[in-house]
Amino acid sequence: METLVVDHPLVAHKLTTLRNVQTDSPTFRRLTDELVTLLAYEATRDVRVADVTVDTPLTPMTGVQLTRPTPLVVPILRAGLGMLDGMTRLLPTAEIGFLGMARDERTLQPATYADRLPQDLSGRQCYVLDPMLATGGTLAAALKLLVDRGADHITAICLLAAPEGLSAVEKKLTETLRADHGATLRVVTAAVDQRLDDNGFIVPGLGDAGDRLYGCS
């Protein structure tokens, strides 16, 4: 599994404001939208395209367009919804599937409560939206579900990641996926923070992304 930390001054600037406890929900939502668009620009460098011929006002030329099937964008409810507009701004023709997964705050294990995804994802590129890669349980379960349905190129876009979470995702997928699954897995994030605290929250982090996006717990 590859991890890409997007090193850009605008990414760092927006992330710093998101971390600030004084940032209100409307500002938090706007900055999340802007930050995801910047992350998505890097995350889609490997999006699949095919040559196509078009006529300019002067002459025919060969360019590229997205191949079919188009990419599938999968926000993990609820906080992933706050990242959806920023992602689809760059991929307006992408299909969108929804996956509801919640972390049990006692066991820290993920539980699926909603699945609105195609059953057959053979040959699909998927982009998973999950703001916080903390313990890694939720993301690992989501990635495994997509691979099991045939997705062969999956990129998770996260605002923040913890080292423990990245290690846990890689370990869990190595243990549960077939050696010959052939899927490419990648995490794109604005920063890898210091650690998790005893409650499974990222430190220094930015708090609970869902609560800060929507103003309620």
What does this structure look like?
The protein is of the alpha/beta class and 217 residues long. Strands 1, 4, 5, 6, 7, 8, 10 and 12 form an 8-stranded mixed sheet that branches. α1 packs antiparallel against α2 (25-43). The protein has helices spanning 9-19, 25-43, 84-88, 137-148, 163-176, 209-214, and strands at 2-5, 49-55, 60-66, 72-77, 95-96, 98-103, 110-116, 125-129, 132-133, 153-158, 160-161, 184-189, 195-196, 202-203. The mean pLDDT is 91. The chain has 6 helices and 14 strands. Uracil binds at residues 202, 207-209.
Question: In short, what is this structure?
Answer:
The protein is α/β, with parallel strands linked by helices. The protein has 6 helices and 14 strands. The model has no long low-confidence stretch (mean pLDDT 91).
Helix/strand-derived category reads alpha/beta
CA-atom Rg in angstroms? 18 Å
Count every beta strand, where a strand is a DSSP E run of 2 or more residues: 14
Instruction: Outline the biggest β-sheet.
Output: 8 strands, mixed
Instruction: Give the helix tally.
Output: 6
Beta-strand residue percentage: 25-35%
Question: What is the average per-residue confidence, as pLDDT, rounded to a whole number?
Answer: 91
Pfam family, one: UPRTase
Pathway: Pyrimidine metabolism; UMP biosynthesis via salvage pathway; UMP from uracil: step 1/1
Catalytic activity: UMP + diphosphate = 5-phospho-alpha-D-ribose 1-diphosphate + uracil
EC number: 2.4.2.9
